[in-house]
Write a structure and sequence with these properties.
The protein is globular, with a radius of gyration of 18 Å. The longest helix is centred in the N-terminal third of the chain and has 23 residues, at 3-25. Strand 1 (57-60), helix 3 and strand 2 (94-101) form a beta-alpha-beta unit. It has helices at 3-25, 30-52, 85-90, 103-106, 216-222, 235-243, 258-270, 303-314; strands at residues 57-60, 94-101, 115-121, 126-133, 138-142, 148-150, 166-167, 180-181, 190-191, 202-207, 226-231, 249-252, 274-276, 295-298. The protein folds into 2 domains: 3-150, Fructose-1,6-Bisphosphatase, subunit A, domain 1 (Fructose-1,6-Bisphosphatase, Chain A, domain 1), CATH 3.30.540; 166-314, D-Maltodextrin-Binding Protein, domain 2. The strands form 3 sheets. The protein has a 7-stranded mixed beta sheet with strand order 1-2-3-4-5-6-9, sandwiched between helices. Helix 5 crosses helix 8 and helix 6 packs parallel to helix 7 (258-270). By secondary structure, it is of the alpha+beta class. Bound molecules: adenosine-3'-5'-diphosphate and magnesium ion. Magnesium ion binds next to strand 2 and helix 7. This is inositol-phosphate phosphatase. InterPro entries: CysQ/Inositol_MonoPase, Inositol_monoP_metal-BS, Inositol_monophosphatase-like, Inositol_monophosphatase_CS. Its EC number is 3.1.3.25. It catalyses: adenosine 3',5'-bisphosphate + H2O = AMP + phosphate; a myo-inositol phosphate + H2O = myo-inositol + phosphate. Residues 64-83, 173-195 are annotated as: Disordered.
């Protein structure tokens, strides 16, 4: 089995397990649901990776020493720890996983914007990646020929069950509100290629529901196109929304970690998207400090406008 197929299988299966956790625990105790989801998916991924790739290093959000006190419902076991730092930094193959990205949305009934991320870093590049969107019944992943694929079409549209997600908006210079629709993509099973913005005068930007970058209001004043901000949970779901044509870009700043972006960036790059830091620098993984606080993902045609606008705001 290739690394691509393994990443896809593990992300998909961890996603199935997370749907079962939601069924088992319900939504009454959101702390227990979040912690149990985080840890059951983490334990599943750690066990499968140890079995299938025993020599590879692993960096998981839930295997850090700082979360060693966290527990799943009905278990007193501490989370399986990540590969020790010095071994990980020296390893030629490092799996970077986020067992449950969008933990907050996972704990909210009816929300579909949460994901499982499985990526493989091989020293200087993202060699494979898979993002499972269990609520929508799909896994986006890289392939052996350097491309990306959506093996089956989405079982659901939008990011809330029964409805489509909608966004608040900031228009170009005026900064007035208008509405944006997050679920206007046309995802079909098959090869995944990031689509160009449908309207060249408008860029729909997916942003965090709770921590949208403060500079986006200023950015709207500095770019020659209208910007619609579309709040969606989970970095994996937001980057998937770019690849599925439901939004045109994902902009984040102010804090994030390697596991939040490694797998979705792997898929985005393989799908022909621009994926970089917000200053245009490349995304580098497997550092001693796993903080990777900002990211821009978009079609290459939108990158110059967004990067120069962000540079202007930073000045
Ligand atoms: N300012 C910040 N500092 C640290 N992590 C952040 C962050 N903003 C977003 N993230 C992380 O990025 C992921 C997507 O966030 P959001 O939905 O707000 O866009 C979440 O991962 P987890 O759900 O795995 O914790 C969240 O914790
Ligand atoms: Mg995350």
């Amino acid at each position: 089995m290739t690394d691509h197929a393994l990443a896809a299988e593990l992300a998909t299966e961890a996603g199935r397990l997370l749907l079962d956790v939601r069924d088992e625990l319900g939504f009454g105790d959101s702390r227990a649901l979040k912690d149990t989801g985080d840890l059951r998916a983490h334990e599943y991924l750690m066990a499968r990776l140890a079995e299938r790739c025993p020599r590879d290093a692993v960096l998981s959000e839930e295997g850090r020493a700082s979360v060693a006190g966290k527990r799943s419902a009905g278990s007193s076991a501490a989370p399986t720890a990540n590969t020790a730092l010095t071994d990980r930094l020296a390893a030629p193959r490092v799996w970077i996983v986020d067992p449950l990205d969008g933990t907050r949305e996972f704990s909210e009934e009816g929300r579909l914007d949460w994901a499982v991320h499985v990526a493989l870093w091989t020293g200087d590049r993202l060699a494979a990646g898979a993002v499972a969107l269990p609520g929508r019944g799909v896994t986006l992943h890289t392939t052996e020929d350097g491309a990306a694929v959506l093996p089956t079409g989405p079982a659901a549209s939008g990011w809330t069950s029964g409805t489509t997600a909608s966004g608040t908006a900031v228009s170009g210079a005026a900064g007035t509100a208008a509405s944006g629709n997050a679920a206007s993509g046309n995802a079909k099973a098959g090869p995944l290629a990031v689509p160009e913005p449908a309207d060249p005068g408008r860029i729909r930007i997916a942003v965090s529901r709770s921590r949208p970058p403060a500079f986006l209001d200023d950015l709207a004043e500095r770019v020659p196109v209208e910007l619609d901000l579309v709040p969606i949970g989970s970095a994996g779901a937001k980057i998937s929304a770019v690849l599925l044509g439901e939004v045109d870009a994902y902009v984040h700043a102010g804090g994030q970690y390697e596991w939040d972006s490694a797998a979705p960036a792997a898929v985005a790059l393989a799908a022909g998207a621009h994926a970089s830091r917000v200053d245009g620098a490349p995304l580098i993984y497997n550092r001693a400090d796993p903080r990777l606080p900002d990211i821009l993902v978009c079609h290459p045609v939108s990158a110059p406008t967004l990067l120069s606008g962000i540079r202007d705001v930073a000045r």
